[in-house]
Design a protein that fits this description.
With about 260 residues, this protein is α+β, with helices and mostly antiparallel strands. Helix content is about 35%, strand content about 30%. The strands form 3 sheets. Strands 3-4-5-6-7-8-9 form a 7-stranded mixed beta sheet, with helices on both faces. The chain has a 5-stranded mixed beta sheet with strand order 11-10-12-14-13, with helices on both faces. Strands 1-2 form a two-stranded antiparallel sheet. A hairpin with a 2-residue loop joins strand 8 (about 135) and strand 9 (about 140). The longest helix has 21 residues, at about 5-25. The structure holds D-MYO-inositol-1-phosphate and calcium ion (3 copies). InterPro entries: Inositol_monophosphatase-like. Keywords: Hydrolase, Magnesium, Metal-binding.
């Protein structure tokens, strides 16, 4: 069970973490490489994750955690209540731009998304919501975006997939009104929640999409791995989310033909 109290707590933790992240930008970041020179992690990613893990362990000691950094990046199943955390989504933007990054937190129960939070720290915009509760920007309830066709809307895209035309991403982009590349999954998902983008094609890990799926679900968006199978919450997968009409068009015209 999730509760009003849990929502209030998560919002408080997010504000505290965001304050810490903003102050940290006035100090020198400790940046290291993970798998390659473009895959970065900073001391702030790790410290932010540690902050949330401590809060969850103190308040919900029986819950389990899946999170991107340091020892929490695998989980054997989604049984019971599981917190899925990306402490800083868009680390490259965080390091290079000091904006266009988010904190993302999701709460799942037996594999079903219950709560989702995407916090654009530098804009102080918290997109959040819960199963059958709708989607909010800070305290304001958002309206469900229109079911726009592929040819009529902008599409968020992973730069590598677009450049290499993986899963016809270049052609799908051409069929849309245009592609946009933010370098941050959370920012792309926010653009869909606002109705600014009709979809997002990328290569994502569970913590990149867990919070977003709870919110996309409330607005009737379709999502899956790019071949149309359910997302596994286990490894990186090619990801597609779009309005129902655009999703069906992409599957029919570009993926399944
Ligand atoms: C990354 C960003 C990026 C997406 C990558 C993610 P990170 O997250 O969301 O936009 O293309 O797949 O890994 O590593 O900065 O949290
Ligand atoms: Ca990362
Ligand atoms: Ca991420
Ligand atoms: Ca991250």
């Amino acid at each position: 069970m999730t509760s009003e109290k849990m929502i209030i707590q998560i919002k408080e933790w997010l504000k505290e973490a965001a304050g810490y992240i903003q102050v940290s930008l006035t100090n020198k970041l400790l940046v290291s490489q993970k798998s390659n020179r473009k895959d970065l992690v900073t001391n702030i990613d790790e410290e932010t994750q540690a902050f949330f893990i401590k809060k969850i362990n103190q308040n919900y000691p029986n819950d389990r955690i899946l999170a991107e950094e340091k020892g929490f990046d695998t989980i054997e199943s989604l049984a019971g209540r599981v917190w899925i955390i990306d402490p800083i989504d868009g680390t490259m933007n965080f390091v290079m731009e000091q904006e266009n990054f988010c904190i993302m937190i999701a709460v799942y129960e037996d594999g079903v998304g219950q709560l989702g939070f995407i916090y654009d720290v530098m804009k102080d915009e918290l997109y959040w919501g819960g199963r059958k509760q709708g989607v909010f920007l800070n305290d304001q309830k958002l309206q469900q975006p229109k079911d726009t066709a592929l040819s009529k809307g902008l599409l968020g895209m992973n730069a590598y997939m677009y450049g290499k035309n993986i899963y016809a991403a270049g052609e799908i982009g051409h069929a849309s009104m245009g592609i946009r590349v933010s370098g941050c999954a959370g920012i792309e998902l926010i653009a869909m929640l606002k109705g600014n983008h009709i979809g997002y094609i990328s290569n994502l890990s569970p913590w990149d999409y867990a919070a977003g799926l709870v919110l996309l679900n409330e607005f009737g968006y379709k999502y899956s791995n790019i071949e149309g199978k359910p997302l596994a919450f286990a490894k990186r997968e090619y990801f597609l989310a779009a309005t129902p009409t655009a999703y069906a068009q992409i599957q029919k015209d570009f993926i399944r033909n």
